[in-house]
Amino acid sequence: MSTPAQAAELIKRKQLIEEKLEKTGKRVEYEELFKKRLIDSGWKDDMKRICMDVIKSKGIENVRVEELTEELVPKGKALIPESVKSELLEKIQAFIENDPDYKRLYDF
Question: What span, in angstroms and rounded, lies between the C-alpha atoms of 49 and 71?
Answer without folding.
Answer: 13
